[in-house]
Amino acid sequence: MEKNYLPIAINIAGEKILIIGGGQSAWSKIQILKRFDAYVEVIALEVCDEIKNSDVPYTVKAYEKVDLKGFLMFYSCTNNPELDAQIARDGRNAGVLVNIHDQPALCQFVSPAIYQDGDIRVAVSSNAKDVYASIRIRNEIKNFLETKTLKE
Ligand SMILES: C[C@@]1(CC(=O)O)C2=NC(=C\c3[nH]c(c(CCC(=O)O)c3CC(=O)O)Cc3[nH]c(c(CC(=O)O)c3CCC(=O)O)/C=C3\N/C(=C\2)[C@@H](CCC(=O)O)[C@]3(C)CC(=O)O)/[C@H]1CCC(=O)O
Ligand SMILES: NC(=O)c1ccc[n+]([C@@H]2O[C@H](COP(=O)([O-])OP(=O)(O)OC[C@H]3O[C@@H](n4cnc5c(N)ncnc54)[C@H](O)[C@@H]3O)[C@@H](O)[C@H]2O)c1
Q1: How do the domains of the chain map onto residue ranges?
Q2: Which residue owns the Cα nearest ligand 1 atom 46?
């Protein structure tokens, strides 16, 4: 069935979120999740310096299905399509929400482009069809809201 993403706002403060992979894609995700106070853990064969120098706990190991246990959701950033497909299947079987970096066909949820001003959040999604449109429209909304605030 064709994907049809419901945009929701989910509380992740203190929630356990797993990142599989420790490269720059993983680091980008971690920074966003930490802004929203998630409890993030990483497992990866190799971890980049940014993660090593952060306060995010990481384990250097090969992914195993059992690693998913106890997490609300996870992001796979392994850059390995075969492994990602296996991880996506494991996530569904384990009932843990799956995001596979830059592979919307394998995702149960995707991330919108966000504008945040305190408690106000605007999220723009293209149903994972055109991320560049999402970013452009988010920027237009941001400019509109910031100009409006300046005039008030
Ligand atoms: C909004 C944002 C949120 C976030 O990541 O948290 C986000 N991508 C961001 C940045 C970004 N993404 C890409 C670049 C270019 C540079 C690069 O190549 O790295 C940059 C720019 C950058 O990195 O600065 C390329 C890209 N992204 C995806 C694909 C695959 C595909 O489209 O098939 C390709 C290759 C496309 C191609 O063919 O060129 C896929 C996805 N990107 C999504 C979200 C989800 C769909 C959202 C929706 O519904 O519209 C989804 C499905 C991922 C998911 O959520 O699983 C974040 C905004 C940062 C901000 O706020 O400014
Ligand atoms: N935001 C982004 O997405 C972004 C930003 C800047 C640059 N890049 C570039 O895109 C390219 C890809 O980056 P990336 O981070 O997606 O991939 P990467 O290849 O850098 O990292 C993949 C990670 O997955 C881990 N991994 C692989 N197999 C594993 C297994 N079986 N078990 C556990 N861990 C495993 C590796 O150890 C590594 O940490 C790089 O050149 C990067 O510099 C991406």
Answers
A1: 16-106, 113-151
A2: 128
- Over residues 5-22, the pLDDT tens digits come to 999 999 999 999 999 999
> What interface predicted TM-score (ipTM) does this complex get?
0.90
Taking the alpha carbons of 99, 77, 118, 146 in that order, is the dihedral positive or negative?
A: negative
DSSP string for 27-44: HHHHHHHHHTT-EEEEEE
CB 86 within 8 A of CB 60: no
- Whole-prediction pTM: 0.93
Across the chain, what does the average pLDDT equal?
Answer: 96
Q: For domain 16-106, give the CATH number.
A: 3.40.50.720
**Which residues' Cβ are closer than 6 Å to ligand 1?**
32, 99, 102, 104, 107, 110-113, 125-128, 131, 134-135
Phi, psi dihedrals of residue 115, rounded to the nearest 5°: -120, 130
